[in-house]
Amino acid sequence: MAAGNGTNGHRNGKKKDPVLVVVQLSGGNDFMNTVVPFTEGIYHDSRPLVGIPEDKVLPITDTLGFHPSAAPFRDMFNDGKMAVIQGIGYENSSRSHFRAMDIWHTCEPDKIATEGWLAKVIREIDPNGENPLTAVSMGRGLPRALAAPGVAATSVGDLDSYGLMSTVEVEEERAKDLDVFKRMYTPAVGSGLVMDYLAHTGQDVLKGADMLSVAPQMYQSSVEYADNPIAKALRDVARVHTAGLGTRIFYTNHIGYDHHAQEVPTHAKLLTELSQAIADFRADLREHNADEEVAILVFTEFGRRIKDNGSGTDHGSGGGAFIIGENVKGGLYSEYPSLAPADWLYGEDMNHTIDFRSIYSTLLQQWMGITPNEIVGGEFEQISPFEKTLV
Fold first, then answer.
1. What pLDDT was estimated at residue 170?
2. Which sequence spans correspond to the domains of the chain?
3. Which residues, in sequence order, are bridge partners of residue 89?
4. Which of 272, 266, 339, 336 has its CA nearest to residue 305?
5. pLDDT attached to residue 154
6. What's the pLDDT score for residue 205?
7. Regions of the chain with pLDDT less than 50
8. Which residues partner with 386 through β-bridges?
9. Which residues lie closer than 8 Å to 150 by C-beta, 6 or more apart?
């Protein structure tokens, strides 16, 4: 199913393969407070507590601006390196964290699926399972997007500590990882499938983690990342990517976006961490001449409701996503959902204006050079968010 070929960039005399870095914002990022419709009266009327004052917003158009804590995002947008996908979602949006994330991970809104969308991509890139590092997740357990029977992906919690552990400590760490995996997936697909998956691919996952231990020794950088989980995860991505281990998909997770209460301080802190970490990561890639082959997808399972609840916002829909990278054609894509009350979904949510599978299809076909239909479960209209690609 590989699609297209063409001129590839080169590093060290070898062609550069396109790489996808996924950043998952867990909990349901408040898109309305990330990309703020600051001229809309209905926005300010609906959010007396959490709304961003117009004079604090960082404008990117006459009507939209970034949250004041996301200045690095505003800079990326102004540099033409960030595509903002407005109103991303799907029909009959689920408000359950578990189910909504499951749908994003498997592209199956109507049934429980056993194969993650990125696991299918791994199968396309490495059909014989020769490299357990084709996909690497930074963090505990393995995201459902990377899991499918017979497909190996590698998960590592912390590259630094991993390389320093004794054999006994490594085994304990692995046992914890496998336990996290079992607890994550058993409710969705049942213990039989989970145990089957672990039996077939568990050893490959562990072998991949061993192979990663060389990455920190090979890495030097002048970029100083902040001391928080998403910054550390992206630094680990940079270290593995620049080590040239053949990884084509990286997965990271930034948690804490479920803002039912205390949204104002918490969201500001998270957006500071996220936007600065991505800015530092991109600077690190540039320093290593390793930026042109990397595209970053930032997504979340759903948006929040239009009205605040007096302390935060509740689960909604009509969220947003971002594609960031050196070869991205920055700008606004799809339409910002209508805030007119007559258009509210369920009488209280923003509606979606583009299907998330359209964005997956775009990334697969245009960036990774892979025909998307079987992976995303159909044909979806694509956008054009790249100036150029390597496929």
1. 63
2. 10-376
3. 355
4. 339
5. 86
6. 58
7. 2-13
8. 328
9. 123, 129, 200, 201
Q: How many other C-beta atoms are found inside a 10 Å radius of the C-beta of residue 203? A: 12
Helix (H) or strand (E) holding 88: strand 82-89
Amino acid at 300: T
pLDDT tens, position by position, 146-164: 988 888 888 887 787 655 5
According to the CATH classification, is domain 10-376 in 3.40.1130? no
Task: Note the pTM of the prediction, 2 decimals.
Answer: 0.91
Name the token pair of 2.
């590989």
Question: Strand, helix or coil at 163?
Answer: helix
Per-residue model confidence as pLDDT tens digits over 213-257: 889 889 999 999 999 999 999 999 999 999 999 999 999 999 999
Tokens of 4: 């297209």
Q: Are 389 and 327 in contact (CB under 8 A)?
A: yes
Selection from 361, 380, 383, 359 nearest residue 371 by Cα: 361
What phi, psi does 19 have (nearest 5°)? -125, 140
Terminal-to-terminal C-alpha distance of the chain: 13
As a whole number of angstroms, the distance between CA 121 and CA 150 comes to 13
Residue with tokens 């158009």: 61
